[in-house]
C-alpha cells in the first residue's frame, strides 16, 4: 500500500497525479528556499485566544508542544504591530469583529487582529511529532469534520431556506464516487470541503510521522508504521493531499501578477529581496503550468450564493476551532494552514481578474495571508516529498516487517 502511487485524474480537478509527481521535487526545492527568506519565515499569530466553543482543559505539557517567539525588535519596522494594524485592518473594510480577531465578508477565515499576538519564526518551530493526542485532539478533529454539514445551520435556516443540493456536472459525477458516496444528487461543495480537510489532516499526519520521536530511544526519525497506519492504508487520504496541492497551486497561479508586484522589502539587502522574487517567480511558473482546478464549477446554480455563504461560515468556524487546539506548536501550524487554505479559497471564489489586478488593488491580501498561503503550499508539497521517502523506506524494509 505504501508503494501505491495514485495515477490518473485528480478528482474534481483538470490535473493528474503524474503531473504533480513530475514537478514535486523541483517545486519542493524552490518552496523550501522561499520559506526560509525573512518575509516568509516570520508569522504574526495570536496563540492565546480562548477556545470559543468549549472549555479547553487538555493542554499539552510536552516539551515538543512548546514554541519560541521572536522579539518584535528583531522584526523589520514595517511589519511591527503598530505599522501593521494601520495597513492590515482598514476600519471601513472590517465588517465583523470579535475580541482579538475579525473577518471581512469575503474572507473564509477569521484573521488575528494584527495588534495582538507574537511573531514566530516558522523555520525555528517546524511542524513535527509533539505527542498531542487523546480526547482534546480528537474533539478538535471531530468538530472540524462536523462543520461539513450544509443546509442545516440554524443561522442560515433563519436567514433563508436551506440551500438545495447542487446537481453535479456529468463529468464530475464519476470522479466523486469514491468513499461510497451517493452519486445521483450530490453536493459538490460538501465533497470539496471534506477533501480539503481530510487532505490537511493527512498532511499533518505525514509530517508528524516523518518528524517522529521514538519515545524509547529519544531519537527523531521517520516512522514508517505511523505513516502506513494513518495515511497509506487509506489511499483516499493521500489523494486529498494532492487535491489540496492543486487547489493551492491554482490560487498561486491566479495570484501570479499580484504576488510578483508585492512588496517583499524586508529591510534586508537588495540581493535578498531579488532572491525572494526569483524563488517566488519559479513557484508561480510551476503553479501556472500544473495548477489546474476549475473553480467555476462550484457555487453555481440555484441558491449558489447561500451555499457559498454557508461554506465560508463553516470554514471560518474551522479557523476559530484552531483556538481550541491544546498544543502551541500544533495550534501554530493549524492556524497557518487553515488560514492558507482560507486565503486560497478567497482567491478562487471571491476574486475576479479585475480584483486580482495589482495596480487596481494593492491591498488585496495582508502580509499574514500571503505568508500563510505560501507556507501552506510548502507544507503540502513537503508532505508529497516525505511520501517519496516513505515509499523508498517501504521498498528497503526487510520482507518480514
Ligand atoms: P487523529 O489523527 O487524531 O484522527 C482522529 C480520527 O480521524 C481517526 O481515528 C480517523 O478515524 C480519522 N482520520 C484520521 N486521519 C484522517 C484523514 N486524513 N481524513 C479523514 N479522517 C481521518 N500532533 C503532532 O504530533 N504534531 C502536530 O504538529 C500536530 N498538529 C495538529 C494540528 C491540529 C489542528 C490538530 C487538531 C491536531 C494536531 N496534532 C498534532 C495531533 C494529531 O493530528 C493527532 O490528533 C494525534 O496524533 C492523535 O492521533 P490519532 O491516531 O488519535 O488520530
Walkthrough of the structure:
The chain is mainly alpha-helical. Helices cover 50% and strands 5% of the residues. The chain has helices spanning 17-34, 38-41, 81-88, 135-146, 154-159, 170-173, 188-210, 224-232, 235-254, 256-261, 270-290, 304-321, 328-350, 367-396, and strands at residues 42-45, 69-70, 96-98, 101-103, 111-112, 118-121, 212-213, 220-221. Helix 1 crosses helix 14 (367-396), helix 9 packs across helix 13 (328-350) and helix 12 runs antiparallel to helix 13. The longest helix has 30 residues, at 367-396. Flavin-adenine dinucleotide (FAD) binds at residues 127, 129-130, 132-133, 137-138, 140-141, 198, 201-202, 204-205, 208, 230, 237, 325, 329-330, 333-334.
Low-confidence stretches: 152-186
Given the C-alpha coordinates, what overall shape results?
globular
Question: Structural class of the secondary structure composition?
Answer: mainly alpha
* Beta strand %: 5-15%
C-alpha Rg, in Å? 21 Å
Strand order in space, largest sheet? 1-6-2
What is the arithmetic mean of pLDDT? 85
Total number of helices:
14
N-C termini distance: 14 Å
Helix content: 40-55%
What summary fits the major beta sheet?
A: 3 strands, antiparallel
Short description:
With 401 residues, the protein is mainly alpha-helical. 50% of the residues lie in helices and 5% in strands. The protein binds flavin-adenine dinucleotide (FAD).
Amino acid at each position: 500500500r505504501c508503494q501505491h502511487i495514485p495515477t490518473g485524474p485528480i478528482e474534481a480537478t483538470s490535473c493528474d497525479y503524474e503531473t504533480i509527481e513530475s514537478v514535486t521535487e523541483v517545486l519542493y526545492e524552490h518552496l523550501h528556499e522561499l520559506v526560509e527568506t525573512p518575509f516568509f519565515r516570520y508569522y504574526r499569530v495570536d496563540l492565546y485566544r480562548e477556545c470559543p466553543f468549549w472549555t479547553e482543559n487538555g493542554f499539552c505539557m510536552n516539551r515538543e508542544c512548546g514554541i519560541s517567539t521572536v522579539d518584535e525588535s528583531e522584526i523589520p519596522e514595517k511589519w511591527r504591530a503598530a505599522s501593521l494594524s494601520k495597513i492590515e485592518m482598514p476600519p471601513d473594510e472590517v465588517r465583523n469583529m470579535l475580541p482579538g480577531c475579525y473577518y471581512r465578508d469575503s474572507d473564509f477565515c477569521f484573521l488575528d487582529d494584527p495588534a495582538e499576538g507574537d511573531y514566530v519564526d516558522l523555520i525555528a518551530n517546524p511542524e513535527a511529532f509533539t505527542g498531542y493526542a487523546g480526547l482534546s485532539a480528537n474533539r478538535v478533529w471531530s468538530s472540524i469534520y462536523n462543520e461539513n454539514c450544509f443546509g442545516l445551520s440554524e443561522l442560515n435556516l433563519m436567514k433563508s431556506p436551506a440551500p438545495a443540493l447542487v446537481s453535479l456536472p456529468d463529468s464530475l459525477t464519476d470522479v466523486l464516487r469514491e468513499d461510497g458516496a451517493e452519486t445521483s444528487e450530490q453536493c459538490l461543495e460538501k465533497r470539496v470541503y471534506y477533501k480539503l480537510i481530510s487532505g490537511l489532516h493527512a498532511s499533518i499526519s505525514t509530517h508528524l510521522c516523518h518528524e517522529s520521536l521514538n519515545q524509547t530511544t529519544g531519537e527523531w526519525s521517520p516512522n514508517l508504521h505511523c505513516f502506513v497506519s494513518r495515511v497509506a492504508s487509506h489511499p483516499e487520504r493521500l489523494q486529498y493531499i494532492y487535491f489540496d496541492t492543486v487547489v493551492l497551486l491554482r490560487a498561486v497561479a491566479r495570484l501570479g501578477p499580484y504576488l510578483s508586484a508585492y512588496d517583499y522589502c524586508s529591510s534586508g539587502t537588495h540581493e535578498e529581496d531579488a532572491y525572494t522574487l526569483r524563488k517566488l517567480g519559479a513557484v508561480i511558473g510551476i503553479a501556472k503550468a500544473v495548477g489546474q482546478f476549475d473553480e467555476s464549477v462550484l457555487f453555481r446554480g440555484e441558491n449558489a450564493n447561500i451555499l457559498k455563504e454557508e461554506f465560508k461560515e463553516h470554514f471560518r468556524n474551522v479557523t476559530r476551532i484552531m483556538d481550541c487546539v491544546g498544543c502551541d506548536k500544533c495550534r501554530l501550524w493549524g492556524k497557518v494552514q487553515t488560514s492558507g487554505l482560507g486565503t486560497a479559497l478567497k482567491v478562487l471564489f471571491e476574486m475576479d481578474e479585475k480584483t486580482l489586478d495589482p495596480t487596481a488593488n494593492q491591498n488585496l491580501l495582508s502580509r499574514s495571508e500571503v505568508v500563510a498561503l505560501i507556507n501552506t503550499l510548502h507544507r503540502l508539497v513537503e508532505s508529497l516529498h516525505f511520501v517519496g521517502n516513505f515509499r523508498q523506506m517501504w521498498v528497503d524494509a526487510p520482507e518480514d516487517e
